[in-house]
Amino acid sequence: MSILAIDIAAIPDVEMGERLYGLHDLSEKDITRVMYTKSREKDISPGDLEHHLQKVLAISLLIQDEESFKIIALGDRHSSEIDLLQQLQQEIERHKPMLITWNGTRSVLPLLHCRYFSNCIQTPFKNGINHTDLKNELTANEYQSSMTLHEAKLLAGFPGTPQMTPAATLDAWLAGNVEQIRNDKLVNVVNIWLVYQRLRYIHGEIDLNGMKDEQQQLQQALVNSGIPQLAQLMKEGEMEAGIHLVDKN
Length: 249
Prior knowledge:
Structural class: alpha/beta
Low-confidence stretches: none
CATH superfamily: Ribonuclease H-like superfamily/Ribonuclease H
Radius of gyration: 19 Å
Distance between the termini: 30 Å
Number of domains: 1
CATH class: Alpha Beta
Helix content: 40-55%
Largest sheet: 5 strands, mixed
Order of helices and strands: EHHEEHEHEHHHHHHH
CATH topology: Nucleotidyltransferase, domain 5
Strand content: 5-15%
């Protein structure tokens, strides 16, 4: 079966905020400020917006099947949300994968459902999809857990820098640094895949040699990507750190 690790970057849906709150003739930055203020009044966590008040800015995928292993950011920095959603639809329809996410049950999937609804596009999840939420798996469905993907990665013994926070993503978007956000999500799907393989190992689905084989495939994919941010993972010793931690047992 194909697997598809996915991570998305979301930003405020400024047009929705303008319609919802009657914010005419304001800048994107000012509308965004009002939207976050209104969310705080609803006791939403600081820095968060409800799913229906966000839109998709970037989608990154790691797709692995028997014939290929690729890491891609859909579209480019100028792609519209509709373009990104349609490309995701095509990839899922083509591969019919098992979906792998970090906290996807409470973040990625609800937001994507809202965006397919908003843009009147048929969702690739219409017939259901085999989905593994790694945060649920690791925390035994403890919904109050605040563990982040970065913390799970450190727990597994992998090095690396933290992912961008929602606040950092917002600042980068307002500053026009979309490529920085896209690159961050590319690194995230690699991290999701690494956590997934560690969980497969501790659950007895693969042995040590199997995990080494999987990570060799990832190493080759990182080299083939030609993306500097992914090549940097090799320099940081991502793969070796995880394997050595198991080897010493």
